[in-house]
Write a structure and sequence with these properties.
Helices cover 20% and strands 34% of the residues. It contains three helices and six strands, in the order βαββααβββ.
Amino acid sequence: MALYGQLGAGKTVLVQGICRALDAEIPASSPSFVIANHYPGILPVYHLDLYRLNNLEDLINLGYEEYFYGSGVCLIEWADKAAELLPAKRWDVELRIISEQEREIRINRRDGQ
C-alpha cells in the first residue's frame, strides 16, 4: 500500500489503525529514523517511512524487495520517493487535509497492467 500526503495528513495514523486491525504485537510508530519497522500480528506488517530517504540506492541496500514482495502487508509512507521501485500491483492511498479535524482519503487499486 503506497501512502501519499503532506506532513500531518494522517499517514502514520492510518498505519497505526491497520496495525491494530491486524493485531500487531507492537504499537506502530513512525520509523522515520530507521526507515523500516516490522510488526508481527495476524499478518506481518512492514512499515516503511521514506521521508528521510536520500536516494533509491539506500532503499535497494535495505532490501526493499523483501518488504514490497514479502508475505505480509507493506505500508509505504512517502511512496512517491520510490515510485520507480513500487510494485505495479498495489493500492495507492492519498490523504488530504480538509481541516484540522477532517481528512479526505482516496484509494486507487493498481492491477499491475
